Sequence to fold (111 residues):
Amino acid sequence: MNWNWVKYAVLAIAPLVLIWGVYTFISSSGNPIPGALEYVDVMSGEVVNLNSNKIKSIPARNSKGERVLLPLERRDGRIYVQDRYKDALDSMKGDARLKVDIETLEVKGAK
Fold:
């Protein structure tokens, strides 16, 4: 019996299985972009994933060009601005749109 067809079938199916595995791994993780970090827009509460290679400074710019994106951390099911970026909020304290409790760094209404 000629088993050459098995070799060709494996060679044809293996790349498809590999592609499916990579796609499943990426789509099931919390970060859809490899190397991405989660940031929160402190004015709107929107959570965004940004590729760490494209961040030039923190606060990073949102889609409107405003420097209002800060790295976040999740604790107890809530979203907080990372402690080390508390000073970045000082210049934003007077803005009525600010969604961050300055004392606790919790983001109110994060999406």
In short: The chain is about 25% helix and 25% strand.
